Structure formats: C-alpha cells, structure tokens
Amino acid sequence: MPTPTTPPQLVALLHSQVQGALALSGSGGPTQHLMAFAAPSSAEIWMATDVRSAKWRALQDDPRASLLLDDRAGLLADHHDAVVATASGRLTPLEGDAQVSARDALTARHPNLTTFLQAQTTAYLCFHVHNWRMVRNFAHVSVFDPRISGPQK
After folding, report:
1. With a cut of 50, which residues of the chain have pLDDT below it?
2. pLDDT recorded at residue 102
3. How many whole angstroms separate alpha carbon 4 and alpha carbon 23?
4. What are 34's strand-pairing partners?
5. How many other C-beta atoms are found inside a 10 Å radius of the C-beta of residue 91?
6. SS (H, E, C) 34-102
7. What is the pLDDT of residue 38?
8. C-alpha atoms less than 13 angstroms from C-alpha of 88 in its C-beta half-sphere
9. Which of 62, 48, 61 is nearest to 119 (CA)?
10. Residue 37, Cα to own-chain centre: how many angstroms?
11. How many other CB atoms are found less than 10 A from the CB of residue 42?
12. How many CB atoms lie within 10 A of CB 128?
C-alpha cells in the first residue's frame, strides 16, 4: 500500500508536541490522561503506562481511544491560529522488538522519563490511528485517514 501524504500541519504537531490528551472509556466511565508519546508515523503512536494504573485497566476493558494534540498558546488568538488534531483508533500492548523500538524512541524523546520507561511495571502501547480530525482557523475541519493514500475531505 502506498504511503499516504500526511498533512503538513499534522506533521508539525507530531514533531513539536511532546504530550497529548488520551481519552479512554473503561467500565468506570470516560477518563482523560496526559500522555508522553513518540510517533514513528501518523498511523502509529507509541506511549507507555504502568500496568498497575487505572489507565491500563480501562484499556483492557475497551481498547478504543482518542488522542488530542494541539499547538495552543493560551491566548485569545488561539481561536483562529491554533491547530487541533484528534486521532481515533485502538490501543494495543507491544511486545518483543516492537516494545524495544517504542522504549528506545520514547526514551530518546523524553529523557526525563527514563526511570519510568525502564521500570518492570511499564507497558508499551501502540495507538493504531484510524483517522485524524484536524481543525484550523476555528472552523476549517478536515479528516485524514493514515491507512489510505490520496486526498481526503
């Protein structure tokens, strides 16, 4: 399958932002979590969590999730200048070589989290993105599916 062309605004967010808001819906109801991430592509995003956490239990109940990234500055101008991207998809635990790749990428991008990332209780996750919804200039909404190639509306 050909590699899709990722919108430049999304590429910029994936490179410039180091955290995103992950939304889960487990048996206890909806929750949000601030997550460090590394993105090998717009179709896969790597994260880590402690296997003793409520987050881990929630994704065991329901692996569907969304991840919000944005470049807001906390100013009124954000209503028109900010770019917001929300990914929808599924989280799956990583094992073997994929886990090592995720650990290495997360450690390189977030050296302040090295102790956590090397802990025996840390699980590595792959967020498989089904689609991205991007909002620019307050009202311009576009949808991008990283699994297909070509322009999308």
Report:
1. 1-3, 150-153
2. 98
3. 26
4. 21
5. 23
6. EEECECCCCCEEEEEEECCCHHHHHHHHCCEEEEEEECCCCCCCHHHHCEEEEEEEEEEECCHHHHHHH
7. 98
8. 7
9. 48
10. 6
11. 23
12. 17
- Look at the chain and count its residues: 153
3-state secondary structure of 105: helix
The backbone torsions φ and ψ at residue 12, rounded to the nearest 5 degrees and listed phi first, read -60, -45
DSSP 113: G
Q: Read off the tokens for 5.
A: 């062309």
Other CB atoms within 10 Å distance of the CB of residue 93 = 16
Place of tokens 């998809």: 89
Q: What is the pLDDT of residues 47-91, one digit of tens each?
A: 999 999 999 999 999 999 999 999 988 777 777 788 999 999 999
Distance CA 37, CA 79 (A): 25
Q: Judge contact between 55 and 31, C-beta under 8 A.
A: yes
Q: What is the pLDDT of residue 26?
A: 79
Contact between 66 and 152 under an 8 Å Cβ cutoff? The reply is no
What torsion, rounded to 10 degrees, do the Cα atoms 101, 64, 58, 93 define?
-20
